[in-house]
Inverse folding.
């Protein structure tokens, strides 16, 4: 059996790594790892291969950046000949980035079954490009592997037949638990002379936050205030870095005394930084899951989340971008101790083995 596994952008790598590790145990499966090249900087891509023990991609489409239509079209145009020549039995896609959507469209038109890992996740906000990618990919997929019971329910509500839906748990947690011990030993905070539990971590890259000048300014105003009380480590995503420069706000950000700016970090360094943080402020999806498992408080700087279980069971607070609300939530958090979350069902480090068990059954493998 031949599977093409699709990776394109930073959050895809930690979702694929545990699946490829499990499949390596099955000699009857030939896995081809395809990188679309949506992310290409060393610290947005290459470093994750080392950190996660991922094999180097067999194929790289080298599409690079561009508008949504351009990037999606480039991936489609370059992926189609690969599928035609490799004739895989399955295309496995993860997450919700443009590469996920583009490769799903190609596979569906060539009548190749698609497995979608992290299916059914919804923010119910169609202004998010990722929400469009999720809805279309789920509609086209044959095997839908969901990370949570909420996600399974969303698929049923969308009219996806129950026999295509497999609740397997969260593969991101597989990677986190696999890497945690090694990551913790890195004590990456030492790099800036910090102490564990004494600093905040900030990440920002959502188009709705960084591409909108007013929202970006409001967020920076609150960060300026927070960083007066404690150091805030801010690994800056390339999109954000470009927007700060375009908006002429880069000098302002550099002037905040408690704000520590750095390049995007690799997986192990970032997990090390997260695991010892006092609080995390973010607009990322994956970080909401990671902080829930680590028991670190997380303020999500968005109006909605596709991970409701991190609020119900975990350490996540949805606070939007309003200054007063963020500062009030931070105040409340500091009155509490470090979180003692329950792990959502299936967030146990075994999601990849459940995915592979389904593949075995579905394709009648030994
Ligand atoms: C993409 C995903 C988003 C995911 C994020 C994780 C989509 C629609 N969005 O957003 O869901 O959360 O990745 O990082 O697929 N750039 C570089 N170097 C790189 C990659 C990007 O400089 O290696 C810059 C380019 O200027 C590019 C911009 O970042 O135009 C945005 O990159 P893009 O892949 O289009 O979207 P992300 O914001 O990274």
């Amino acid at each position: 059996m031949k599977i093409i596994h699709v990776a394109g952008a930073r959050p895809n790598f930690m979702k694929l790594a545990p699946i490829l590790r499990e499949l390596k145990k099955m000699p009857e499966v030939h896995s081809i790892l395809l990188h679309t090249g949506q992310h290409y900087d060393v610290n947005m891509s290459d470093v994750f291969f080392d950190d996660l023990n991922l094999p180097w991609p067999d194929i790289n489409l080298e599409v690079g950046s561009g508008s949504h239509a351009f990037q999606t079209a480039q991936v489609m145009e370059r992926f189609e000949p690969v599928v035609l020549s490799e004739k895989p039995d399955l295309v496995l896609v993860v997450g919700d980035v443009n590469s996920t959507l583009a490769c799903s469209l190609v596979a569906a038109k060539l009548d190749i079954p698609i497995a979608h890992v992290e299916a059914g996740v919804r923010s119910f906000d169609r202004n998010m490009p990722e929400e469009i990618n999720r809805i279309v990919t789920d509609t086209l997929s044959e095997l839908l592997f969901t990370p949570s019971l909420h996600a399974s329910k969303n698929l049923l509500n969308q009219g996806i037949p129950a026999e295509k839906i497999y609740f397997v748990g969260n593969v991101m947690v597989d990677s986190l638990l696999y890497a945690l011990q090694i990551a913790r030993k890195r004590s990456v905070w030492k790099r800036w002379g910090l102490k564990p539990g004494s600093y905040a971590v900030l990440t920002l890259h959502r188009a709705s936050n960084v591409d909108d000048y007013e929202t970006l300014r409001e967020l920076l105003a609150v960060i300026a205030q927070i960083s007066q009380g404690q150091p805030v480590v801010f690994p800056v995503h390339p999109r954000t870095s470009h927007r700060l420069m375009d908006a002429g706000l880069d000098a302002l950000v550099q002037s905040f005394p408690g704000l520590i700016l750095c390049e995007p970090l690799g997986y192990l360094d970032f997990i090390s930084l997260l695991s010892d943080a006092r609080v995390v402020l973010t607009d990322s999806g994956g970080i909401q899951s990671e902080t829930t498992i680590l028991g670190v408080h997380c303020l999500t700087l968005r109006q909605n989340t596709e991970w409701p279980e991190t609020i119900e069971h975990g350490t996540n607070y949805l606070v939007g971008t309003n200054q007063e609300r963020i500062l009030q939530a931070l105040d409340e958090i500091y009155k509490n101790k470090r979180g003692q979350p329950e792990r959502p069902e299936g967030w146990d480090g075994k999601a990849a083995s459940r995915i592979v068990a389904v593949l075995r059954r579905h394709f009648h493998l030994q």
